[in-house]
TrEMBL record:
Protein name (record): Gustatory receptor
GO cellular component: plasma membrane
Keywords of this entry: Cell membrane, Membrane, Receptor, Transducer, Transmembrane, Transmembrane helix
InterPro entries assigned: 7TM_chemorcpt
Pfam families associated with the record: 7tm_7
Chain segments annotated as transmembrane: 41-61, 73-93, 225-245, 330-360
Main subcellular location: membrane
Membrane topology reported for the UniProt record: Multi-pass membrane protein
Amino acid sequence: MEEEEIVLPMPKSYRWVRMTITVSQVAGVNQSKGNRLYLPLVAYSALLSAMSGFTMLYDYVRQAAGGLFPDTAAMVLSSLIVVATLCNVGVSWRNTVYHAHLSSVFRQLDELAEDICRLGLQLDLDRYFDLSRTGLLLLFMITMYVLENILYPPEETLVLLIKLLAFLPLVQKSLTERQFLGLLHVISRYYSAIDTGLKSPEIEKTSLVKIHRSLASLCHQVNHIFSLQIFLSIVFIFVIVMVNLETMLPVFVYLYSLDVDNQNMLMLKVFQSLFFMFQIFDLMSTSARVAEQARMFDWTLYQAMLDDQLTNINKDLLLSHLSMKTEVKFTAYGVIGLNYQMITSILGTLMTLQLMLLLINLRDLDGADSGKIRAKLNYIK
């Protein structure tokens, strides 16, 4: 009697993640062609980022020369702008170098999806990554950027053109973050499926342990591919938020002390900072959730072994698995842990620094030099 062929109900598993790298695929980045055709796009991105960064650097130095900023503050802000620029370029470059490695990750995910479906488990991936969420985030970022430059355009047309063109690296950075988050959402669905199977007496537990090992290995691969990119993105976001709040805070205090109605640019700065902070929170919370799912699988497996409920599992394999301590964790280049504790640390650091800046600015506003503050207001516009 011939064996009936198993038809796996493979969902549209990676459509949204793959769509986020459409630009790279069109540019010809793959294992056969390498990065050759993508290099002009990276050079374009790097050039525009550098032009934008050094344009802002020039503005800060000019304002310092005019006495608007203290020399030390101007030097620090200028350095931060250069750091943010280099981070933006670094994300684009790193994304190019490691793009070919993503094909291996997709292939392994497809194979694991087949293994999970063969065990009779349901793997719902159609809703794991909502494209509309990415679209809304990008739309919000574009809207804020355009409004800032339309409502308060730079005095020089060339500077405005450079700033608008330099928006491409920011889009690339955001899409890179969405790739990382999309893959983590996929892995999270896989862990949910095998965790359900672990609680079912009909499912072969040995296969689930093997899938868990493969998922843990896959997590390390994903972290290796995106680690430096995420680190640079976090540094970029932290720097931009600090620069936004440093330039915004004294004007914010001044305007609200006078009950001035025209506060549009302050609201834009606030929304931009909140948007960037949300990106950090999304990265870290999603990473922490996947790591917690992996730990819970190990814990459930260990408890089941102690209760002697797993009668259809190779005990030697189980002990070998537990002895390996397959810990899943995500880091930004081994420097920043992507977990809830780091979210608390970053928020605490920002609040401490901003409190210090607020106290300094309040002291400067005592006996207020309103002309200087109004000059800073015009500069932020």
